[in-house]
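Practice problem: predict the structure.
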Amino acid sequence: MTRVVVNGPAAWNTVVRVPALPEPRPHMVLASAHHDGLGGTSAGKAVTLSALRVPTTLVTTVGDDDEGRRVLGALRAGGTGPDVLARPARDGRTERHVNLVADDGARLSVYLELPTAPPPDEQVLDLVRGADAAVLDLAESSRPLLDVARAAGVPVWCDVHDDDGVAAYPRAFVAAADVLLVSAARLADPTAYLAAAVDAGTTLAVCTRGARGALAHDRDGWCEVGTAPVDVVDAEGAGDAFLAGLLRAHLAGAPHDRALAEAAATAALAVTRVGVGAPHATPQDVARLAAAVRVTRSAQPPETPSSASWSSARWSSDISRESSQP
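Answer:
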């Protein structure tokens, strides 16, 4: 029986490594490396969960084209990947990006194709209602599933990537999330953001900070999460692996402190190879690396909040209003 449903994009991407993101002027840039392969935040989470032996179904949209066949082939490679419910794109095209990735981890994604997903049918709704957890990634196809999962009592996990706490698109996802993952990339005040999320009803809110580890908040306080010692080859997709490791540990009954250590370990495994997520991870490797991850719990946030353009109270009020809208 499927325990986890992941809904969202799987893509066929061209990744180009550059020393730095190009300036906005006509000039030539020499790539240091490039490759084509499976992409998409939902694909990254699903292949990592499957590698960690969590029964997972990925619900995604693909077109009837060569890229769609490549996506499905990569997801099913070796017979060890997730179950895939591939829904036909209305316009027949598969999602495609060109991602410029700089040596410092900065990324510019150029969308070549962005397919339109069909509305969820009864098969999708039943999968969500019967799951132990629903990972609903930022996509229009996920929006109607937020209310479906919550009405069925299914925990909702949302990764809102580089949300700044103000942009309209992620607000419904933030409001619905039982577990929330965000990047520090565009946050003026991560502690205020996490505190507002927990005050609004989120069980666990986590802000990933790249090489600085992560900051997490739950109803018992705060956790600073370190990193595992590995050689970084490609940092793209580490956040997807982080969520997958966190979810696997949570489903196994681990307390938040231990689950966060396993999340950091899974992200560390992801960055040791080129490609999406951590399809090479094993529970044993995660456990070994997690032992080297320091997680420090405190009653107060370990950082002094910086000044922000929005307050915790206002942000909490905004997402509460969003959650009450039809």
